[in-house]
Amino acid sequence: MAAYVSKRIGLALVSLLVLSAIVFFAGQVLPGDAGRAILGPLAAKSAVQHLDHQLGVDRPLVVQYWHWISGVLRGDFGRSYQYRSAVAPFVAAAALSSLKLAALAFVIVVPLSILGGVVAALNVGRPVDRIVSVLGFSGSTVPEFVSGIVVIEVFGLWLKVLPVTAASPPGASFVTQLDHLVLPALPLVLVLFGYIARMARAGTVEALESDYVRTATLKGLRRSAVVGRHALRNALLPTITVIATQTGYLVGGLVVVETLFNYQGIGLLTVRAATARDFPMLEAGVLVIGASYMVATLAADVLISLLNPRVRLAGAA
Amino acid sequence: MSVVAPAAGAALAPREREAAGGRGGLARRLVRSASFDVGCAILGFWVVCAVFGASFAPHPALAQSLLATNSPPSATHLFGTDQLGRDVLSRVIVGARSILVVAPLATVLGTAAGTALGLAMGYVGGVLDVVVSRVVEAVLALPMVIVALLFIVATGHSTATLVVVIGFVFAPLVARTVRAAVLGERELDYVAAARLRGEGAARIMFAEILPNVASPILVELTVRLGYAIFAVATLSFLGFGIQPPTPDWGADIAANYSVIPAGYWWETLFPALAIASLVVAVNLVSDGVEGVISS
Predict the structure, then answer these.
(1) Which of A26, A137, A256 sits opposite B154 (nearest CB)?
(2) Where are the beta strands (DSSP E) in chain B?
(3) Tens-place pLDDT, residues A30-43
(4) Cα dist. A100→A180, A182, B205 in Å?
């Protein structure tokens, strides 16, 4: 068990290192002259060189990377070009806001999609099965801003049941905050629903066809006991992996949903930084997003190895 | 030679297997797949709009009418007009063009590069395989749109960059699929036979192995097209894809979503439905292709 977990953590660390190198390359090497970018095309050459030296971008790449990555490890993401102040506090505040939105989307989607998948599996080939699969299929293929536009217009504009802005007034109660977050969470729910429901359905169908379910049925157990106690336990294991890997899609979706609803989270921060060509901020945003995805995947792998001895024994061997 | 001859016979076996099923058989089974047909019909409609749209759109897509801004759907403007008084229906029709040029180009580029990379990873292996596998995992750790955003900002945006960046992001993902398929092929007799005949690594990869891993690559191509449309639309919405005033669904939604609370829903709803129908169509097609090939 310990061997498997430490191997997984080691691999995740290597991936994180590669990720940081990619981000560094894209954010600091590709764009070229940072001093020129800040001062504009009309600035004097000596001023640009002076600023380059101040920013440290005239030093060798390896030195620059080491300087940057050792700062990141201490929680120092550098200074924002657009706000002329440290990046870290912005990132922390934005990440917290995103976490609220993502958590709400998860709380809605996980039970909903597992229920949808299991109900579909219990009714294979019937209309309810078709409805779940068509809904899941369209939801997971349509971009979040497209479904976002539709839900805004249906629930916010025509039915007027939910507020169309994500940000609640300052000092608003928990319930009001929640009320404002439901509409932005819906496009995320739609995207995730399809994948998780499909996995839950496939797992349940497979389990229902297995020998142990037949045995349980033949020994006279009630249908609910067969499904609940025997089938679902095994059926939902792969679903956990899917839920964890969906974190990546969720974060990608946050970028779009936060822009659409003007919600100050990590996604909007990243897009704003990209628009302003504020590279320290952009790198921090991308790095936080990538790292949170890796942590989620790692957590899922460890969780699965706890639940399924076959995985951890195979992994340690 | 007599030793090599039977091996060379074995070398043809996988391709003969496919020939027995027949290319014609594949096409016939595709036509019988309902999701493939529906997907193709919708896709065909948008292709017609992309190619000939400008000639049958009711109004010029760029014509502004400042006396008729934000006007709701009516007989003259079936889908209404936007903030600049441009006809939404015409922009939806003509807007099919930009996305249907950029997304397929990016898909083809990414699939070609990924196939070459995957063949090399699977057949040559070694350090190349280890290094690229790590990079793939790191790229997979990021939402595709974020990676594309990062590189587009870093290199400055234009339509060409958009194609290259999306292709670049897809390449490692395609490579992973191709690599897995190549690993299953490279121990087979026909590869050993080719090696005995003295064929070079490049020839073995592209002339011997490639035709036998064509099916997963075809599936990958259609799946990637769906993702490419998703990515182009999303990047355009974020302001890093196709630039205004070129008619484009994503960019038009970005330009007009701020007036939804004022009740002007038609300016964003119709482009949104257009994107939704296109991605669903492409995914139906890839679903059909995947179903037929894997059956």
Answers:
(1) A26
(2) none
(3) 666 667 767 777 77
(4) 11, 11, 50
